[in-house]
Design goal:
- This protein is mainly α.
- The chain has one domain.
- It is 70% helix and 0% strand.
- It has helices at 2-9, 16-20, 22-29.
């Protein structure tokens, strides 16, 4: 899970709070 979140907040730090939420993560991956 941690490595997945990294992929999100590394390119865009703004996505970090969204990555914390499972639902948000799925939305980001969509």
């Amino acid at each position: 899970m941690q490595f997945e979140i990294k992929l999100y907040y590394v390119p865009e730090p703004r996505v970090l709070p969204y990555a914390r939420c499972p639902e948000r993560r799925v939305w980001l991956r969509s």
